[in-house]
């Protein structure tokens, strides 16, 4: 530096600045020195030679899950907490990716301690550092609802869909209620399509998702509710959670199908799904019976046919 080296010069091949390299090496002292010497804190890596293109020093520090380095970068004036890399991922999304998707490479004990926010034992320090990095980013104003460009999932969504509900609670608490947009309704539809009762329950009871939300976005909008998706997934537990929360068993998608009609149209639908829909007030009409006769076992079609013949449309819907 004393001999005039360029503070933001890039390596010839990798085109990565010294600051990003220092952050990637978890060297908090060098990061602080470079920043105090005038390095651009938001300068991105131009080439995916060592890590994803577009990573800033903050991305790199988070990628090492080193709280001291993350804190050193966050102290810099003008740091962009929600800077996006080449895939549109923010530093917070990088952190949640490492916590959630790293589960296959990390020991099961680590994941259990992480979810329980348990800092005991020999692995407790590592777990504590992961959470501290997330908290540092949230304290600096990172947006837990910011979607990436590649998979259109936010840090909050990543935690929920990975069953990391303890971390999802941290993100939920950090987002101001009056301004937050965590796409809970959209996540509810995703969870229902996967038949994920625990995710559905968290989104409904903790994140304020609307049980009546529909897939109305985009040119291919189906108008299907979460209940339609859970029925299509042939997931009785997911269907039950939605119905108990007040999902309408007679809501129709753009094709005019109710969840019961969809269940009849889908081959090999579990009888528990039919039983739950009827118990909560689903109406069996002639279309449902005709679909069941071609797609379902004879016993199911006979039960539905007898309901239509008797003029019964199921029991009165239970209250939520």
Topology:
Blueprint: H1 18-24, H2 28-36, H3 57-63, H4 67-74, H5 91-100, H6 108-115, H7 124-139, H8 155-161, H9 165-174, H10 184-193, H11 197-205, H12 226-232, H13 236-244, H14 259-265, H15 271-279, H16 286-295, H17 298-309
Helix pairs in contact: 1-2, 1-3, 2-4, 3-4, 3-5, 4-7, 5-7, 5-8, 6-7, 7-9, 8-9, 10-11, 10-12, 11-13, 12-13, 12-14, 13-15, 14-15, 14-16, 16-17
Word description of this protein:
- This protein has 320 residues and is mostly helical.
- Helices cover 48% and strands 0% of the residues.
- The protein has helices at residues 18-24, 28-36, 57-63, 67-74, 91-100, 108-115, 124-139, 155-161, 165-174, 184-193, 197-205, 226-232, 236-244, 259-265, 271-279, 286-295, 298-309.
- α12 packs antiparallel against α13 and α16 (286-295) packs antiparallel against α17 (298-309).
- It is elongated, with a radius of gyration of 25 Å.
- The N and C termini lie far apart (67 Å).
Q: Would you kindly provide a brief summary of this structure?
A:
The chain has 320 residues and is an all-alpha fold. The protein has helices spanning 18-24, 28-36, 57-63, 67-74, 91-100, 108-115, 124-139, 155-161, 165-174, 184-193, 197-205, 226-232, 236-244, 259-265, 271-279, 286-295, 298-309.
Which features characterize this protein?
single chain; 320 residues; mainly alpha; 17 helices; elongated; disordered N terminus
Biggest sheet architecture: none
Mean pLDDT: 82
Number of strands: 0
- Unreliable parts: 1-5, 103-107, 314-320
Judging from the principal axes of the Cα atoms, what is the shape?
A: elongated
Distance separating the two termini: 67 Å
State the share of residues found in helices, binned by percent. Answer: 40-55%
- Count every helix, treating DSSP H or I runs of 4 or more residues as helices: 17
Radius of gyration, CA atoms, in whole angstroms = 25 Å
Q: SSE string, helix = H, strand = E?
A: HHHHHHHHHHHHHHHHH
């Amino acid at each position: 530096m004393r001999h005039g080296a360029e503070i933001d010069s890039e390596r010839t091949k990798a085109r990565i600045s010294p600051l990003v390299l220092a952050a990637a090496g978890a060297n908090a002292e060098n990061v602080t020195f470079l920043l105090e010497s005038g390095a651009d804190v938001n300068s991105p890596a131009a080439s995916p030679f060592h890590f994803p293109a577009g990573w800033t020093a903050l991305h790199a520090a988070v990628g090492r899950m080193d709280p001291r380095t993350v804190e050193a970068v966050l102290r810099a004036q003008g740091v962009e907490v929600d800077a996006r890399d080449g895939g549109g991922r923010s530093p917070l999304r990088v952190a949640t990716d490492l916590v959630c998707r790293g589960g296959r490479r990390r020991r099961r004990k680590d994941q259990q301690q992480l979810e329980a926010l348990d800092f005991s034992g020999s692995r407790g320090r590592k777990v504590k550092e992961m959470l501290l990095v997330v908290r540092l980013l949230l304290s600096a104003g990172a947006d837990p609802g910011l979607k990436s460009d590649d998979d259109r999932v936010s840090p909050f969504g990543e935690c929920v869909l990975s069953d990391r509900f303890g971390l999802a609670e941290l993100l939920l608490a950090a987002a101001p209620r009056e301004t937050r947009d965590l796409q809970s309704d959209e996540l509810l539809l995703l969870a229902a399509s996967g038949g994920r009762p625990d995710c559905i329950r968290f989104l409904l009871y903790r994140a304020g998702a609307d049980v009546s939300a529909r897939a109305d976005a985009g040119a291919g909008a189906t108008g299907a509710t979460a209940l339609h998706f859970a029925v299509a997934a042939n997931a009785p537990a997911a269907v039950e959670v939605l119905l108990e929360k007040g999902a309408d068993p007679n809501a129709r998608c753009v094709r005019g199908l109710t969840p019961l009609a969809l269940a009849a149209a889908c081959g090999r639908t579990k009888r528990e799904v039919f039983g739950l829909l009827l118990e909560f007030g689903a109406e069996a009409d002639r279309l449902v019976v005709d679909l069941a006769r071609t797609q379902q076992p004879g016993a199911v079609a006979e039960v539905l046919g007898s309901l239509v013949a008797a003029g019964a449309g199921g029991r009165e819907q239970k209250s939520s």
